[in-house]
Design goal:
Elements (H helix, E strand, L loop, with lengths): L11 H8 L12 E2 L11 H12 L15 H15 L9 E4 L2 H12 L12 E4 L5 H9 L3 E4 L2 E2 L5 E2 L6 H5 L1 E7 L11 H14 L2 E5 L15 H7 L8 E6 H5 L7 E5 L1 H14 L5 H11 L3 H22 L12 E5 L4 H12 L1 E2 L1 E2 L16 E5 L4 H19 L1
Parallel strand pairs: 1-12, 3-4, 3-7, 7-8, 8-9
Antiparallel strand pairs: 2-10, 5-6, 9-10, 11-14, 13-14
Length: 405
């Protein structure tokens, strides 16, 4: 057995199942889950039509093994989207690579980048991660024999990372950094100045930056969130040195079941990642590729999707803000709220009394630098239809009022 497998921690939703063991939800209320960040808006018809047309076509490609690099037409559609969205030019032949969803690719990328340390005296290879964070980063680091280093976050800055607190000895051993902007769970967007600092650190220490940007198209400000590749171009780094960005159709286009996304950036690392993926068996189905082209080439459904989230958050956020510390995020589809007392007990009691599921914030973070930054918070995924989310918010308001009375 891989000796690193026992180092993996239970996934948040497995921990949630354990937490709720023995809890009997109040049957007077219909169940509402705000626990899992799985998009539940309708899949756009144009994507389903493209999928069905590809299936029925005499040239569906299903009788042949697909290329790991994907069809050039798919990579061109992805490059066109990057041009429209970020006003940048990425070479579809060398700087863009299809992936089977950002989760799979974020994990696999570490296996490409990390070089095991041959000198035990030098200390473990470090993979720098945000905290709170997406647990795939931690698992990827552990399974390639590295040590995740969890960067402290600043609650007053919407849980942005305190990069200045990272010791020089950690930077010296860092080979890979994961960043998430817009962030999960707090929804913060990294400004250009923060990117400039990270690029400087990368240049000084030679590590690679993996930028998780799967929430980039759900935002609440007038200005779209800054992307890592966009920041690089603005700062005169059009070669995207040591930077690879990852994105997905799951949230943008409400097709999590398609498992379709792409990564783009430094041509050197895209080439190496393609080599790894050729052995890993990560080629995308030709039918999914055809549907993905339709999705990346259309923005109307994305605008409609974003409008639905904006309307939903506009109703839910003020309701909850009346009884707890919560605010509209920069982007994403989560509310990251502070609750009185234990976040796990809050979640258990809410389920028992009002049949609403939320995720304890401590499950999305690690004890580091003496504390768990997710403790005393909950994450609420507003992925259901507006009426259901508003109903959940009303129940939470009543629950909080009942606890405080």
């Amino acid at each position: 057995m891989n000796p690193n497998l026992p180092r993996l921690q239970a996934y948040p939703f497995e921990r949630l199942r354990q937490l709720f063991s023995g809890v009997v939800p109040n049957a007077a209320f219909s169940p509402i889950s705000l626990g899992i960040g799985e998009p539940r808006h309708a899949t756009p018809q144009l994507i389903k039509d493209a999928y069905c047309h590809a299936i029925q076509s005499g040239d569906s490609g299903l009788a042949s093994y697909p290329a790991t690099a994907g069809d050039l037409r798919l990579r061109q559609s992805m490059a066109r989207w990057l041009q429209r969205r970020y006003q940048l030019a990425a070479d579809p032949a060398t700087q863009v690579l299809p992936v089977n969803g950002s989760r799979e690719a974020l994990f696999a990328f570490a296996q490409t980048v990390i070089k095991p340390n041959q000198d035990p005296a030098a200390g473990p290879v470090q993979v720098v991660c945000p905290n709170p964070f997406y647990q795939i980063y931690e698992g990827a680091a552990l399974l390639c024999g590295a040590q995740p280093y969890f960067v402290p976050s600043v609650p007053s800055r919407n849980f942005a990372q305190d990069w200045a607190s990272v010791p020089e000895a950690v930077w010296a051993q860092t080979q890979l950094m994961y960043v998430c902007s817009p962030g999960n769970p707090a929804g913060a967007v990294m400004p250009l100045e923060e990117w400039e600092n990270l690029f400087s650190l990368s240049d000084r220490h030679g590590f690679v930056i993996a930028s998780d940007e799967c929430y980039s198209e759900i935002y609440f400000r007038d200005e779209a969130p800054l992307g890592g590749l966009e920041a690089a171009v603005k700062l005169g780094r059009a070669d995207f040195k040591n930077l690879v960005a990852f994105t997905s159709l799951s949230k943008r286009s409400n097709v999590p079941g398609m498992r379709s996304g792409f990564c783009a950036g430094d041509a050197h690392w895209i080439k190496q990642f393609l080599l790894y993926r050729t052995y890993h068996g990560s080629a995308m189905s030709p039918v999914v590729q055809a549907a993905s082209i339709a999705a990346w080439d259309d923005e109307a459904h994305v605008i409609d999707n974003r409008a639905q989230y904006r309307a939903k958050f506009a109703q839910v956020t003020p309701l909850l803000a009346g009884v707890m510390d919560v605010a509209l995020p920069d982007a994403g589809f989560y509310l990251w709220a502070q609750v009185p007392g234990s976040d796990t007990e809050f979640a258990r009691e809410l389920l028992a009394q009002y049949n609403v599921t939320v995720l304890p914030g401590s499950y999305l973070a690690r004890e580091a630098q003496g504390h768990n930054p997710g403790a005393g918070r909950i994450r609420m995924a507003l992925v259901a239809e507006t009426t259901e989310c508003v109903e959940a918010a009303r129940r939470i308001v009543e629950f909080v009022k009942g606890r405080s009375s």
